[in-house]
Amino acid sequence: MQRKSLILLVVLLTLLVGCSRTEKRGSEASGLPKVVTTIGMIGDIAQNLAGEYADVTSLMGPGVDPHLYKATASDVKVLSESDLILYGGLHLEGKMGDVLKSLSRTKRTIAVSEAVPTRHLIGMGDSYDPHVWFDLNLWLYAVEAAYEGLVELLPDYAVEIEANYHTYVEQLEELDTFIRHEVETLDPEQRVLITAHDAFEYFGKAYGFDVKGLQGISTVSEAGTRNVQELANFIVEHKIKAIFIETSVPQKTIHSLQQAVKAKGFDVEIGGELFSDAMGDAGTYEGTFKGMIEHNIKTIVGALKP
């Protein structure tokens, strides 16, 4: 009986070890082409277009500032093992520039925002604003660039990816209509958006907002005392009702602005938290591009209404 029990135990252990190895192999290697994106907004495109036909990974999660993000050793490994890299470009991923440039020599890499014609970009020369996703009509150029890269990577699924592409474009067009409808509920003089950095210039140009940020288009440069005082004077003069913090930028600059306004005898509210350079938590509605944009416009309009 003891010998039979021992043999049975050995067989069970062998089966368990074998199963664990199989599960490990399955989790480590799906067998699908690997698509790596930098920011979540591009990851949302890739996931919706490629669907079940690719393994999509986004390096930068919720609350991550792409302007300051430095690639880790594990990031470089993930990138080097990818079949397609989709990133923003226009110096959005400033501190990853050398890594992406080096990988582009051996890997298929696409800077999706650089598909936008330069006549539509804000800025000039080497200083274009990279926050193109806030004008949904311009973001369609980025979606198309990603679509072409995915079809090239997955030619056997071109029909399915094309269908997904058209569905995604329709969703963005509906979202654009929703934004315009919400904005119309504000009087023109109420459409002033003040945030921590200049991430919303495309949004302002597309939807009729006067946009002001404490920092420039990159968060690498910090807001100085002069910037705070000038913007505080503007808020007091125009009696701006609310200012906004961003999930990927430290809140201290906006709180400093609020205190500077208060010192001038006027109270301005913190109107809420906006998603600028990163989406919300994975698994939440705000963790999708559509959810992120809807959250932003509802927060902005809700805070600026009388």
Rounded to the nearest angstrom, the radius of gyration is 23 Å
Low-pLDDT sequence parts: 1-28
What's the CATH H-level superfamily name of the largest domain? Nitrogenase molybdenum iron protein domain
- What CATH calls the topology of the largest domain is Rossmann fold
* Count of runs of 4 or more consecutive helical residues: 10
CATH architecture of the largest domain: 3-Layer(aba) Sandwich
Question: Could you explain how this protein is built, in words?
Answer:
It is a single chain. With 306 residues, the protein is of the alpha/beta class. It has two domains: 137 residues, Rossmann fold; 124 residues, Nitrogenase molybdenum iron protein domain (Rossmann fold, 3-Layer(aba) Sandwich), CATH 3.40.50. A four-stranded parallel β-sheet has the order 2-1-3-4, with helices on one face. The chain has a two-stranded parallel ribbon with strand order 5-6. Helix 2 packs across helix 5 and helix 2 crosses helix 6. The protein is globular and about 65 Å long.
Brief synopsis:
The chain folds into two domains: 137 residues, Rossmann fold, CATH 3.40.50.1980; 124 residues, Nitrogenase molybdenum iron protein domain (Rossmann fold, 3-Layer(aba) Sandwich). It contains ten helices and eight strands.
